Amino acid sequence: MNALIVDDSSTMRKIVSLALGGAGYSTQEAENGRIGLEKTMLGGVDLVLLDINMPEMNGLEYLEAKSKISSIAKVPVVMLTTQDEKELQEKALSLGAKAYLVKPFKKDDLVATLNKIL
Amino acid sequence: MRLHDKSAAAGLRSLGDELSSAIGLLDEIGEITERSRLIAFNMSIEAARIGSRGNGFKVIVGELRKLNDQTAEFSKRVSELLSRFKKFNESLVRNTVDESDKVSEEVERGIEAEENAVRSLMRVSHACVDLTAGIERVVESTNEDLDRILESLQFQDITRQMVEGAQAILAEVQEDLRGRLGTSQGGRDRVPDAARVEALRSKFLLGSHTRGEKEAIQEVVV
């Protein structure tokens, strides 16, 4: 399984990568929504872990753009963000996100969520 | 048995790689600490320059220094812990491969005395059982520690975002003060009035994205 981690914090990308690596996932990284979208379109991405607050293209804009591209519209996305506002959660889920996790996350919770989705 | 040993060794090597990645993360935390130290240093100079009106900055500088010290201490402790695990892990990898090689050599020599070979295999088998139990214990405790490390690192990263949020509002307040110190003649006008600071606070709250940033902006005292 190949997971794409989209987060503007390189530390956070490595933390998520380390957590997923231990659960048998291979990972690739993107530092904002725009680069994330490009990497998703290149193919081979089974799952996206997506932050919200990022420069250039934020997580919600990524979801909106992705839903309009038929070749990648069905790639599942899990939100992983420090923003816990209910409206944001509803917005992300309405734009197609499969789950919404708030940082700091526990490795087991993350892996259990991914296993449930995939 | 060789296959079993080899798979254990491969598992340990992969664990070693993960530990190396975790050590790499600590280097990044170290860089963040260094950057925060520099910010604290610059802010303390600014605080000294504007005299008693810089007391608000001094509180923040004090908090930043405390955070830096805690981060440095945390990184040091985790780094020591990971290094110990890494050494232990490497020695386990070596031992596992050595035991595996011993069995191969005995098989290749044609097992001269059956009795000796059986005894030897029994010894290796027992060693392997002991080793496997040891590996399981280490893997279990390392996983628990990795969980704690991963969570601590996330807190560190969120704290960094909070510091950056506080830094942004302080920079703007500082700029505002600087402008007024340069243009105003009267002492009274030099004191930042509460309404202006609150207006700036509201502006930053509107522009903030994370819970950490919001909390940091609420905490800033000028």
Account of the protein in words:
The complex is a heterodimer of chains A (118) and B (222). With 118 residues, chain A is of the alpha/beta class. In chain A, 43% of the residues lie in helices and 19% in strands. Chain A has five helices and five strands; from the N terminus they run βαβαβαβαβα. Chain A has helices at residues 10-21, 33-42, 59-67, 86-94, 107-117, and strands at residues 2-6, 26-30, 47-50, 77-81, 99-102. In chain A, strands 2-1-3-4-5 form a five-stranded parallel beta sheet, with helices on both faces. In chain A, helix 2 (33-42) runs parallel beside helix 3. The longest helix of chain A is centred in the first third of the chain and has 12 residues, at 10-21. Chain A is globular and about 35 Å long. With 222 residues, chain B is mostly helical. Helix content of chain B is 90%, strand content 0%. Chain B is built from six helices and no strands. Chain B has helices at residues 2-49, 55-108, 114-183, 187-190, 194-207, 211-219. In chain B, helix 2 (55-108) packs antiparallel against helix 3. The longest helix of chain B has 70 residues, at 114-183. Chain B is elongated, with a radius of gyration of 29 Å. Classes of the chains: A alpha/beta (118), B mainly alpha (222). At the A-B interface, helix 1 of A face helix 1 and helix 3 of B.
* Helical amount of chain A: 40-55%
Residue fraction in strands of chain B: under 5%
In total, the number of strands of chain A is 5
Secondary-structure element sequence of chain B? HHHHHH
Number of DSSP helical runs of chain B: 6
Rounded mean pLDDT of chain A is 93
**Overall mean confidence score, pLDDT of chain B:** 62
